Amino acid sequence: MEKWILIFAVVVTSLDLGSGSINGYFNLDEINDLIDDYQLQYPSLQKEIVGKTFYDREIKALRMANPHKPRILVIGAHHARELISITNIFYLLDYIMTNKSLSLRTEREILFIPLLNVDGLSAISDEFNKTNKILEIRKNIRPTGCKIEDQGIDLNRNYGYKWGYNNHGSSTDPCGEEYRGTSAFSEKETQTIRDLIDIYMFDSVISYHSYGDLYIRPTGYTHTDLSEFPKSHQNLYNDLKKILPSTFKFGTVNEVLGYNANGALMDYLYSLGIFCIEVEIGPEKYNSFHPDISKVKGILDSHLEPFLLLVQRTDSELIADVSGNGRRLVIDVRNDGIATSSNCEIHVQFEQSLDVTVLSHQLHQIEKKILKVKIPPISSEEKEVITLLVRGDIEKFNVTVNFEGGSQHKGFSGEIEIHKLGSRNNLVWIIVISVISVMALFVLLLIYTFYKSKNDTKFIELAEIQVYA
Ligand SMILES: [Zn+2]
């Protein structure tokens, strides 16, 4: 298994981190230019318009397309002023594209949305052009009768699971920081994310915010114990926690910030069974959504390893178990990973030539001693059972099961017994007893027929005598 963990202290990318015109951060035109540049520079990246905003601006994405591979959605800037989260998306993208040794470029499908809150950032960009001041806009500036900084809906309180559960960390005040809107999914930006999830059913979602160096897991509306999550999600959350720097915090929003919040993206994804993490970039000490640009590289580097772990572990983990049951060979393939498996094939290799029939699956072929069976995609924590019928004069044999077309999959190798119900000795006895039984029945039938015919003759004779009398 390949590890994508950083081994170099200095991370090299081609992105000019301090080149943006908002104190080194990128304004809206520069973000659009960067998206175009990346698409031109790397033909494997596809530029997509995934939605529109209230003011009809385009929400753009770059797709690292690898069909049938695990799918990850990476989002920046639900909140407009969190400028470092936008830079972070380009940094991650750049890291993947410029480090040619990374096999994840072909092993994962990743949709990068550097900027979700396009209207909010547009207002920040315009104001900075005029006054050289950064407007601290959090919401999407849709008109709600407030001054520009307080205008609009908090996009990360507008998602449709437990929306408006209570007024803790989400507000009914149109000028409040956490105004959740008039209904769940009332905003075009959240509708865009909802529709993308419906279409692509991502295996995991990473949403970047700032700040605090926090890794926040669901749920936000109330505390949900980690034990209530699928085992594969628990494992990944626990492993992520282990590699975080000691100054970072991991937990629910209540555990790391001391309050609950409803209507967040992560809770919506939790309700769909999709793995999600929300990351707040930048240490608390800088007290800024866009810290001094000289600090940015160090901050972004500290979040690179957790990102690579999350991407690496967004995978299927198929495990094969083989057992014998009479003349049947049963292969259980279960998926312990968080991603749905891609179409893959299992190869069952026998030590000796056997007469084998596949009872459960149609798509298969046999080449010498190797049986190849195509198995459909298996969802996380689900399993597929392959049943074979083995004929022939054999009770024990060695079998090896391998996977083709997937990664991180554990096969099986070992000796299997299949004689429990139908060994040769039992079969001989069954045949002998059957033959004797049939012969005995035949003899009994003969005796019965003989006596019956005798009695019938007597009866006819008697009947004839009566008639003649
Ligand atoms: Zn935020």
From TrEMBL:
Give cofactor(s), names only. Zn(2+)
Using the record, list the residue span of the signal peptide; answer none if the entry has no such feature: 1-20
The answer to whether keyword Cell inner membrane applies is: no
* Chain ranges of the Peptidase M14 domain: 24-314
- The organism's place on the tree of life at top rank: Eukaryota
Q: A Gene Ontology CC term for this entry?
A: extracellular space
Family named by the database record: Belongs to the peptidase M14 family.
The catalytic site is made up of E280 (proton donor/acceptor)
What UniProt keywords are attached to this protein's entry?
Answer: Hydrolase, Membrane, Metal-binding, Metalloprotease, Protease, Signal, Transmembrane, Transmembrane helix, Zinc
User: Which PROSITE patterns does this chain map to?
Assistant: CARBOXYPEPT_ZN_1, PEPTIDASE_M14
In the record, what terms sit under GO molecular function?
metallocarboxypeptidase activity; zinc ion binding
InterPro entries per record = CARBOXYPEPT_ZN_1, Peptidase_M14
Q: Which organism is it from?
A: Stentor coeruleus
For this UniProt entry, which segments traverse the membrane? 427-451
GO BP annotations listed: proteolysis
* Protein's recorded name: Peptidase M14 domain-containing protein
